[in-house]
Amino acid sequence: MPRFSPASALAGAFTSDAARRLPLTESEFLAMYARTAGPLAGYLRRLTGDGALAEDLLQDAYIRFLSVGRLPDADEHRKNYLFRIATNLARDHFRSARRRESIAAPAADPAAPAQADGRDVWRQLARLTPRDRELLLLAYVEGLTHQEIAEVTGLMRASVRPLLFRARQRFARVLRHAGLAPDAIASRPR
Amino acid sequence: MTPIICPRERDVRDAAASGRWPADLAGHAERCDVCRDVRLVTSALATTSAPPPADVEPRALFACARHVRRINVESRISFIVTLTQAVALIGAAALLMSWVSWAEVVRVWSAAPGRNAWIFFTAGAGLAGALGLSRWLREEQ
After folding, report:
1. What pLDDT, on a 0 to 100 scale, did the predictor assign at position A164?
2. CB distance from A123 to chain B under 8 Å?
3. Structural domains of chain A, ranges and CATH numbers in brackets
4. A151 exposure class (CB count in 10 Å sphere: 0-12, 13-18, 19+)
5. ipTM of the predicted structure?
6. Element (DSSP H or E) covering residue A82
7. Which run of H or of E encompasses B103?
8. At what angle are helices A157-177 and A130-140 packed, to 10 degrees?
9. I want to staple A107 with a disulfide (CB 3.0 to 4.6 A). Which of A11, A123, A153, B35 is the partner?
10. B3–chain A nearest CA distance, Å
11. Which residue in the set A22, A117, A140 is minimally distant from B42, CB to CB?
12. For residue B137, what are the CA distances in angstroms to B83, B91, B133, B141?
């Protein structure tokens, strides 16, 4: 049985109304979830290389997104804000994983795509740093502009271009080194 | 020095993602260092398909977010209320002490038999009171 305390009773009286006021209504949230869950899940899955972890981070990201006091007005900004929260959660995970010395490698994902080339690319992607992966996925999978990438990653807009360039160069080098030449991938029908 | 941007980079990215290559763009992507990398990276990432989340129920997420928000707001307000209570308690104690005639207390005290025992008793009671108060404040938070 919960213990009565004047402080919590008073707090409850103050908050019962305020707590109900989330920044979105349920129907607005469901519509937004339908629009963003697929891309966000894909982003987190590629970023972490772990399906279960990506799903956990996805849920955390939505809960944190709804727990903030005020959201940006425009839909695109809301989406970028959600991606920013998810990116920060993934960074926290990588940081604590590094402390535990057990970083999850994307190649270890048992549910990775079945095609040989897909698996190879997942493996090569895992060799990059988390920041390189973030930049490449946001630019070349999500199709975000440099300004939007800056919003999501917290980098300065002017820094995005050179960092993205270097990440792209590194990944291209890794792919070529692994024998994943342009003709082997680019001309493959999807 | 290798250029780090190309004005056609975005077109190349879109073409690589969709798999539809206009003839001139394909030729450009072969010649341009930047676009060659863009094409390779975009095409490679396009092969890493990820299935949509299966076990997530958005309505449950919404309910959970509402609960989390309620807890957050409650704990913030609870802290303010507890702090106010502590300040009020200390103020009341200070008020009570201001009513005491300290000169009389010292006179009675110095004449009292077993004075040292009283000193220890008062110090112990004060310490216990302070510990109890701090523990109560911690619990309230």
Report:
1. 92
2. no
3. 24-186 (1.20.140.160)
4. buried
5. 0.71
6. helix A75-100
7. helix B102-111
8. 100
9. A123
10. 10
11. A140
12. 8, 16, 6, 6
Say if CB A44 and CB A86 are below 8 A apart: yes
- A103 DSSP assignment: P
Residue among B22, B133, B15 at smallest CA distance from B83: B133
Of residues B36, B53, B61, nearest to A182 (C-beta): B36
Q: How far, in Å, CA of A51 to CA of A58, rounded?
A: 10
CB-nearest partner of B53 from A58, A136, A185: A58
Joined tokens for residue A81: 């804000």
First to last CA, chain B: 61
Please count the residue pairs, one from chain A and one from chain B, whose beta carbons lie less than 8 angstroms apart: 167
Per-residue pLDDT of chain B (141 residues; tens, 9 = 90+): 566 778 888 888 888 888 888 888 888 888 888 888 888 888 888 887 766 666 778 899 898 888 888 888 888 888 888 888 889 988 988 888 888 777 887 787 777 777 777 778 888 898 898 888 778 777 765
d(CA B13, CA A185): 14
Closest residue in chain A to residue B50, using alpha carbons only: A42
Which phi and psi (to 5°) does residue B8 adopt? -100, 10
Q: Do A19 and B66 touch (CB under 8 A)?
A: yes
Name the nearest CA neighbour of A130 among A87, A82, A101.
Answer: A87
**Could you give the 3-state DSSP secondary structure of residue A95?**
helix
DSSP A116-176: HHHHHHHHHHTTS-HHHHHHHHHHHTS---HHHHHHHH---HHHHHHHHHHHHHHHHHHHH
What lies within 8 Å, CB to CB, of B16 at 6+ separation is A186, B29, B38, B39, B42, B43, B46
Q: How many helices (H) and strands (E) would you count in chain B?
A: 6, 0
The string of pLDDT tens digits covering residues A88-144 is: 999 999 888 776 654 444 544 444 444 445 667 888 888 889 999 999 999 998 889
Helices A51-67 and A75-100 meet at what angle, rounded to 10? Answer: 130
